Amino acid sequence: MDTTTQTTPAPNVFLKHWRGQYGPARSLLLHTLLPLFLMVWCFGAWREHLVANYVALGEETANSIAATSCTLAFMAWGGVGAWRSLSHAVQRGGRRAFAWPVKILLLLGCLIQVPSAVYAIGTIARMIQATAAMPANRGTATLDESAHTLFISGAIDNGTTAQAHALLQQAHSPVQRVVLNSSGGMKREGGYLADLIRRYRLSAHAETECSGVCAIALLASEHRTATPNAQICLMGFTSDASSAEGDGPIRTLYETAHLPDDLLAHLAGLPSDRGWCAPAEFLIERRVLHQISIVPAKS
Q1: 141 SS3 class
Q2: How far is it, in rounded angstroms, from Cα 26 to Cα 86?
Q3: Strands 224-226 and 140-144: what pairing?
Q4: Domains and CATH numbers, the chain
Q5: What CA–CA distance (Å, rounded) separates 12 from 109?
Q6: The pLDDT value given to residue 133
Q7: How far lies 106's CA from each of 58, 81, 84, in Å?
Q8: DSSP strand pairing (149-153 vs 140-144)
Q9: Helix H or strand E segment including 235
Q10: Could you give the CA distance from residue 163 to residue 186 in angstroms, rounded to a whole number?
Q11: What is the CA radius of gyration of the chain?
């Protein structure tokens, strides 16, 4: 045992707690339990930093990283300092009958957090694997402020929505329209993009192709247009709204977009990885699209 750490006063409050030089009561209440309330601020600030500066992560991965790092940091800070404080108290003549039950509670508190930390780490690993497996034409979002238009092209993958959101927040004038040109991507990210389009009340335009989750984003808009030769492929879905594949929200979106009943029935018979494609003119007739138009190219 290093007696120097115990007898030599630490130069500041943080090191004193870390080395266990405070009494158990102060170490547990003031330096362990009270800082737990700071975790909410830590999580929010760290998450916002990740989303703003590392848009490729995506919101879900940023949430997992922020939650895991804050939890592990506070577990290490509070647990190590309190454990050392209890050990030093016993060495100074304190009662073991008090120290060991508290140590057991500290261990249990740490063990309770382990499943959450493991789940978060697994989520991060899955996001990294999914991102690595995405095709080469990764999704990109660009903004043409002169045309009040947001352009999204390529695979709608992890981080596409965060990138688009950052551009919308930075725009000096209101953005009115999003132009989509994508062969699909990640279902979860397509849902995020659809929410963003609804939040900003953007009109949506399908350019050359809009398939799979791109069509999900397109249908989230209240005003939907397409170029004359655009190919639009709608995703199939299961009839079980609670399916593990998350297909229930897809049907709800289709119903909100007022897709005809016979088209809904047809899509319900298709798996989500198989789409049903139709030219823009046909979708105009079925009122899936509202207008055929041509949007100016990116300047």
Answers
A1: strand
A2: 11
A3: unpaired
A4: 3-133 (no CATH), 140-292 (3.90.226.10)
A5: 27
A6: 55
A7: 34, 11, 12
A8: antiparallel
A9: strand 231-235
A10: 15
A11: 27
List the Cα angle 120/124/127 in 5-degree steps: 135
Is the pTM here over 0.70, yes or no?
A: no
> What is the model's pLDDT at position 283?
87
Residue type, 210: C
DSSP string, 58-81: -HHHHHHHHHHHHHHHHHHHHHHH
Closest CA to 299 of 194, 147, 160, 192: 147
Q: Tokens 């139709």 appear where?
A: 278
Residue 227, amino acid: T
Instruction: Kindly state the DSSP code that residue 225 receives in the 8-state scheme.
Output: E
What are the distances in angstroms from CA 196 to CA 1, 162, 192, 208? 57, 9, 6, 22
What tens-digit pLDDT sequence spans the chain (299 residues)? 444 445 577 777 777 877 878 887 778 777 777 777 777 788 888 777 776 655 555 566 677 778 777 877 877 878 888 888 888 877 777 677 777 788 888 788 778 777 777 777 776 676 666 555 555 556 789 999 887 899 999 988 877 888 899 899 988 889 999 999 998 888 888 888 998 999 999 999 999 899 888 999 999 999 999 998 888 988 887 654 434 344 567 778 788 888 888 888 888 877 766 678 888 888 888 888 988 887 655 55
240 φψ region: left (φ > 0), alpha (ψ -120 to 50), beta (else): beta
Q: CA 168, CA 143: separation in Å to the nearest integer? A: 8
